[in-house]
Write a structure and sequence with these properties.
The complex is a heterodimer of chains A (51) and B (243). Chain A contains one helix and no strands. With 51 residues, chain A is an all-alpha fold. With 243 residues, chain B is mostly helical. The chains are: A mainly alpha (51), B mainly alpha (243).
Chain lengths: 51, 243
């Protein structure tokens, strides 16, 4: 860990907030993508079965 | 081969699915390398101390906040002129990514500004134009959600995108237009006097490349999700008709 001196809180809070937002964006994107893909596949299967 | 082939949703999905793993991995590697390099292996600035390390998040996120809007503008114009649904959906998919990039730029700017300027916020031209850009992003997302007919929503959001482009340009060039306010000039410039030192600019370029790739990965993935969500609506409508 580098010595951040008197600005340690400033630098760490900027990194913490940014990384949290980036990770949340990626996770939400992937979770919604998977959910929609599952829904579409279920619907397509049902429609094929029903002709 | 023409770029317009990718206006076909099936072709778009097939192509993007092939490149997605490479995009995720390369963006994660570049962002990790850039941030580790910047955080652990760069010196403190003689005036700003260790707060200079915030540049490795602040500048790439601000870059993407502005350029995401330009990408939305281009794809919206493609929709208006050529009526390709994939391009309208790509613009829609990019907006939440752009809004998060804008929030990161605003938050890191405020955190950085407090010890350097003595205030979290000032009605400085660049800060203010960024705040307005953030509000345009929210308005753009709200407009998509508010209109049921997807083609009407795409038309109206394209117009909003065109208007908001003024603020995207202002966000980038505000410090040049109005030589006032607290925010300094461009961090990366062809002018050697203005440019940040190599010790900071090299990891910064790596972070910027990582953010660009992450943006592309997120937009491709989210556009695929929007295409599938549109197909679900179409299939459900057909099912209701047949019932």
């Amino acid at each position: 860990m580098p010595d951040l001196g008197k600005y340690a809180d400033t630098v760490l809070s900027a990194y913490g907030a940014s990384l949290l937002l980036l990770v949340a964006l990626v996770v939400v994107t992937i979770l919604r993508g998977r959910k929609v893909r599952r829904e579409m596949e279920t619907l397509e299967t049902r429609m094929k079965r029903n002709g | 081969m023409s770029i317009w082939e990718y206006a076909n949703p099936k072709k778009f999905l097939a192509t993007t699915e092939k490149v997605m793993p490479a995009l995720w991995v390369s963006s994660a590697v570049l962002i990790s390398v850039g941030l580790i390099w910047g955080f652990f292996f760069t010196p403190d600035d003689y005036r700003q101390g260790s707060t200079v390390k915030i540049i490795f998040l602040h500048v790439p996120s601000a870059l993407m906040a502005i350029n995401a809007w330009f990408m939305m503008l281009v794809t919206s114009l493609v929709w208006v002129v050529r009526r390709h649904h994939v391009s309208a959906l790509a613009a829609r998919a990019a907006a939440p990514v752009g809004v998060i990039m804008t929030v990161i730029a605003l938050i890191t700017g405020a955190i950085w500004g407090q010890p350097m300027w003595g205030t979290w916020w000032a009605w400085d031209p660049r800060l203010t134009s960024f705040l307005v850009l953030f509000l345009f992003y929210l308005g753009y997302i709200a407009l998509w959600e508010a209109i049921d007919n997807p083609d009407t929503a795409a038309d109206l959001t394209a117009i909003l995108c065109l208007v908001g482009s003024v603020f995207a340009v202002l966000s980038r060039y505000a410090v040049n237009f109005w030589n006032q306010g607290l925010h300094q000039g461009a961090s990366l410039s062809l002018d050697e006097k203005e440019n940040v030192a190599d010790a900071f600019s090299n990891p910064l370029y790596v972070c910027m490349a990582g953010f660009v790739l992450l943006f592309i990965a997120l937009v491709f993935y989210r556009t695929g999700t929007e295409i599938r969500a549109r197909r679900i609506k179409a299939l459900m409508a057909r099912e209701r008709l047949e019932a």
